[in-house]
Amino acid sequence: MKNLEMPLKFIWDAEHNLMIRKIYDHQVVKQIQQMMSVVRQRRNHLPTWINPSIKKGLEAYFRDDEGFKHHRLTNVANRASPRSSKYTDGLHTVT
Question: Which of 4, 51, 59, 83 is deepest in the core (most CB within 10 A)?
Answer without folding.
Answer: 59
